[in-house]
């Protein structure tokens, strides 16, 4: 349900706004899980999941929009790195085990901030259009 809306958001406001929104939603959701009330924890987890879906849509869209050739390879490499990082993240969580849930939430918020920093320093500020990303055929 959120992915089609995020596509519209990206088309309207750009990829940087999309990733910033995703990370803000996910970060707020993570912080909400620290609340002592069950309802706030449930809403926080829902917001975290929403942020992940928006981030996935945004990054996949950005890769497709800026890649001039071998688009499938670029998206495949992104997906591979995403899942390898997810597997490695488990090791990082083990290192934070002594800090409990608050330490895990801190790690999530720091990763969200790193994602925004990467997008705003490495992503092109101009919004690429799908037509710009098509490889030239030479015909």
Q: What distance lies between the first and last C-alpha atoms, to the nearest angstrom?
A: 40 Å
Count of individual helical segments? 5
**How much β-strand is present in the residues?**
under 5%
Structural domain count: 1
Rg (C-alpha, Å):
17 Å
Please outline the major beta sheet.
none
Describe the structure.
The chain is mainly α and 139 residues long. α1 (2-13) packs across α2. It has helices at 2-13, 15-32, 38-66, 71-95, 100-122. It has one domain (2-121). Mean pLDDT is 82; it is low at 127-139.
Features:
139 residues, mainly alpha, 5 helices, globular, disordered C terminus
List the helices and strands and how they pair.
Elements: H1 2-13, H2 15-32, H3 38-66, H4 71-95, H5 100-122
Helix pairs in contact: 1-2, 1-3, 2-3, 2-5
Summarize the entry for a quick read.
This protein is mostly helical and 139 residues long. The protein has one domain. It is 77% helix and 0% strand.
């Amino acid at each position: 349900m959120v992915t089609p809306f995020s596509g519209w958001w990206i088309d309207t406001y750009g990829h940087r706004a999309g990733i910033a929104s995703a990370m803000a939603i996910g970060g707020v959701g993570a912080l909400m899980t620290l609340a002592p009330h069950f309802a706030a924890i449930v809403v926080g987890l829902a917001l975290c999941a929403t942020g992940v879906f928006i981030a996935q849509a945004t990054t996949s869209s950005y890769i497709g929009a800026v890649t001039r050739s071998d688009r499938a390879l670029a998206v495949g490499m992104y997906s591979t790195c995403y899942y390898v990082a997810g597997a490695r993240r488990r090791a990082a969580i083990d290192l934070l085990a002594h800090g409990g849930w608050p330490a895990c939430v801190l790690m999530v918020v720091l990763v969200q901030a790193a994602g925004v920093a990467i997008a705003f320093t490495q992503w092109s500020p101009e919004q690429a259009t799908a037509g710009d990303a098509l490889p030239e055929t030479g015909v």
